[in-house]
Amino acid sequence: MKGNVIVGQSGGPTAAINSSLAGVYRTAKDRGAKKIYGMLHGIQGLMDERYIDLSEHITNELDAELLKRTPAAYLGSCRYKLPEIHENGEVYEKIFSILDKLEIEAFIYIGGNDSMDTIKKLSDYAIVTGHPTRFVGCPKTIDNDLALTDHTPGYGSAAKYIGTSVKEIIRDGFCLEYPHGLVSIIEVMGRNAGWLTGAAALAQGEDCTGPDLIYLPELPFDLQKFSERVKSLLSEKTSVVVAVSEGIKLDDGRYVCELGQSVDFVDAFGHKQLSGTAAYLASFIAGEIGCKTRAIEFSTLQRSASHSASRVDILEAYQVGGAAVKAADEGDSGKMVVIKRLSDDPYQSGTEVKDVHKIANDEKLVPREWVNIEGTYVTDEFVNYVKPLIQGDVSPVMVDGIPRHLYKPKTQK
Amino acid sequence: MKGNVIVGQSGGPTAAINSSLAGVYRTAKDRGAKKIYGMLHGIQGLMDERYIDLSEHITNELDAELLKRTPAAYLGSCRYKLPEIHENGEVYEKIFSILDKLEIEAFIYIGGNDSMDTIKKLSDYAIVTGHPTRFVGCPKTIDNDLALTDHTPGYGSAAKYIGTSVKEIIRDGFCLEYPHGLVSIIEVMGRNAGWLTGAAALAQGEDCTGPDLIYLPELPFDLQKFSERVKSLLSEKTSVVVAVSEGIKLDDGRYVCELGQSVDFVDAFGHKQLSGTAAYLASFIAGEIGCKTRAIEFSTLQRSASHSASRVDILEAYQVGGAAVKAADEGDSGKMVVIKRLSDDPYQSGTEVKDVHKIANDEKLVPREWVNIEGTYVTDEFVNYVKPLIQGDVSPVMVDGIPRHLYKPKTQK
């Protein structure tokens, strides 16, 4: 490379997104990039000329290792959708003038669907205007809902955390016996795609029966059938554990979390504060069956738990970052790096690049065949798909009993 | 030892309670106990003659290691308070007839306050009736609220999990910038004692500022002052993280979690379903300030996260189990093993036995001096007290990417 590289992070945090950043940095350095800039808070920050020189923050190999183990977007993230080029050319002029000023040869953006839309639009604009900067996307999302890639970095670590925590909750559930039994309802992220919720099945093994029911958002949810299944399970066991996606909906399209809506929770601005899906179902089941219930939300814990990251995930995230720089250096633009599964057992994967126009704004859902007929559990195919992605650990660098992260860039408030 | 030993677990699960069980088993075996029984679901299960022969379940050293890494009460637990001896002698006659049948020489009970009440009453009954069985308690509770012991096994691992997860949440909070800022409110267990909530301060280090505010249940909570403090913090930073105990109360004695009460959440049996403290405060702050808020409850995750247990905690739990058997073998009864801190730096501890009459039904709270004057953070003394207890890790035995636990006793449903 002869010029400079700029890299940004966008969308929701994950435990692996910084490993991709480390991969971008390392490969750009190895390929001779003069400067490697990091946008603070993605494209939105860049427009305000908020960026850092990464070499001032990753000063040695230990820093790079710490970065791989640091959760959430090191550079800060944003949720900003670029306007259509024909609607607002000024935004593009501004961005490209900053890129020119920084002499950017390669622009790498680590993110999900919306971020790939950014890559698409910027590379389109570069083509139209004959601008030499190359734009390559690097996939990232715990939701695993990106098209064309076998899976997305970030998903494996979140899945591992979910499998581990669900298993611990199942053990916890058997401790105390309640007269009418105990039902634990675990709410998992993924509003439209059930990849994360299905990962609850990873708790199953020789030493654990796994959760009793798993409900993905891809299929309509039936409250009465749910209640009957739980009742039937409680006649056989003292503790029932259910994993549900935050996005499960009734047949009529209403989100389950909307049913728990209560007047007290409308705030001063008139915003509805939705109570959680698990909270509603726990209350519903307590009312229907009279058993003890509890609601557990993994919330942000599942996307930021770098202390239990998957080694496969962190390594692949790193590779994908490097592959994005390589692709840009070799002349690719308007592309996203994807992961291709080469073999299941032993698991092997490699990277390719695909046209970002075929990826952006498309959502990959769990196939119907990977859920059982009743819609209450994922199949073995699902589990076989996920299992390789959670293998191996990344031992945190422990300092004084707590995992150490890389210092936050000082320019962040 | 010439006779048999029986051991039970009682009260809430922890990540370390099974390490105490492993310690009881090993020491009883080493000291020549013929049989080592485990009560299923504590004293309540014993009254129904539900017990197992532990040697059938811990068959080798690997089993013992797995047991130390298995969260929640391996034998199952109960929350059963024995009646006063003069009120219901029959219960005692029944228990002692079962002990006689099993030829029990030593009765070890691993638990918290209520469990120590059980040891007290059973040992009193034995004295009154001249019965030879000896009763010794083994402390256990994540709440760390037992008197006379420096700390309780289970607390260190929960504190380590809380410190680690709070740190990950803080990183997560800085990723996305919201127009009016983001306030994350984390709810931690401990209805009356703030030991666990205070552990949120462990997130603080060279690479992390720690949470911004910490509210313990020992001090009254003022909603308006809280709102003002958050508002002031939001003028300086984009993300504010607050740790609150589930048990914080207003000056008038009402729990904060009761304020969020809504009609929709009264179930069919007329039970009030309380929304959480964090959920209420998140809604309150959103209404007051108009910022983005989120509520995160650690719920059962904090007490069962054996995947991030503290080595000091797991080792001490094991030692305490062994010390309980030793004490009983040497003739002690009506005693509880306590941990004595011998030195802070380097940290060293040992065990002693104390009269259980001085422990049962007494609750150790965080001293006022260990909270700052404003009541919004714990002091360095608090942090110095906790820090040694979270040191070191217990690497989980990973099988197929997920921590392995010891098989559940088959007699449990």
UniProtKB/TrEMBL annotation, chains A, B:
Site, as annotated: Important for catalytic activity: 140
Site (Important for catalytic activity and substrate specificity): 114
GO molecular function: 6-phosphofructokinase activity; diphosphate-fructose-6-phosphate 1-phosphotransferase activity; metal ion binding
Predominant cellular place of this UniProt entry's protein: cytoplasm
An example Gene Ontology CC term for this record: cytoplasm
Binding site for diphosphate: 12
EC number: 2.7.1.90
Main function: Catalyzes the phosphorylation of D-fructose 6-phosphate, the first committing step of glycolysis. Uses inorganic phosphate (PPi) as phosphoryl donor instead of ATP like common ATP-dependent phosphofructokinases (ATP-PFKs), which renders the reaction reversible, and can thus function both in glycolysis and gluconeogenesis. Consistently, PPi-PFK can replace the enzymes of both the forward (ATP-PFK) and reverse (fructose-bisphosphatase (FBPase)) reactions.
Record text on subunit structure and interactions: Homodimer.
Name this protein carries in UniProt: Pyrophosphate--fructose 6-phosphate 1-phosphotransferase
Gene: pfp
